[in-house]
Amino acid sequence: MMGLLARTETWNFDIDRYINRVIPPSPLHRLPNPVSRFLGYRKEQKQDVGNVLGAIWSCVGAFCGLAIIAAAFNNTEAIQVHSPPALIASFGASAVLEYNAIRSPLGQPRNALLGHTVSALVGVSITKLFRLRSDFEKIKWIAGAISCGIASAVMLLTGTVHPPGGASAVLAATSPEITEMGWYFVGLVTWGTTLMLIVGLIINNIQRQFPVYWWTPLDVRRTRRKDVEVGPDATGGFREKTVDLAERQAINISALGVSLPEDLALDQDEAELLERLRERLKKRQDREMDEESSTSSTESGWEQQY
Question: Where are the bilayer-spanning segments (predicted)?
């Protein structure tokens, strides 16, 4: 049992390893400068502004972003037909990431848009299953907890972690007016997040830079040549872990053991062949060590005689 638990600690699924191979490189550098600037592109990366100016722009951005979302929701007849809340609560948490911590990986467009959408989709799906029971009102708190847990797991596996998304999943189960919307809530969350990002592109790029990246901090062109994994660094950002495909697919045999690719399974004959090769290497190593030991002893004897 402990061995199984120890093996699970090394399990890792990096969806970008497969997706980034088909993602086209960023075209932002080819666009006119006024356009590319407000899409987050900079020829030279600069440090963010001080926290005083950052606080001012954070305040302006949060106000404008949430006000525009509320105005769009409350003045669109197609949306008002579904009796939505004046403002979805999870957008308040997103505003902190989108206009305050704008360099955080959790607030970049991929995380914000897909994290909210995926979480809302999970929340509505779980809630619809629970609503099949007649006592839904008594157990909807369970639906909310399950929705948040599953949404959190899905966001992590898809590289779209956005903490406010967890709130969207919970709201789908526990807020009566949102529960009644059903699948429409998914589209509403996606639209609201899109509006928030549009405001962020304008406000955050006046004196700051947003987004830091749209899809990934890595150069996707390199992914076609190498296997590239992304891992967190000590600053809350990302760092890349690169392993050549040739190295990943290699079989290494030494006197101490045999190293195989993780996804390569051997039959009994192949395993026995590799083990025999390892034993031969071990015997040769032992023989060389004995010869060196014998030579050292002989030289020591001659030194004692003279």
Answer: 52-73, 113-130, 142-161, 181-203
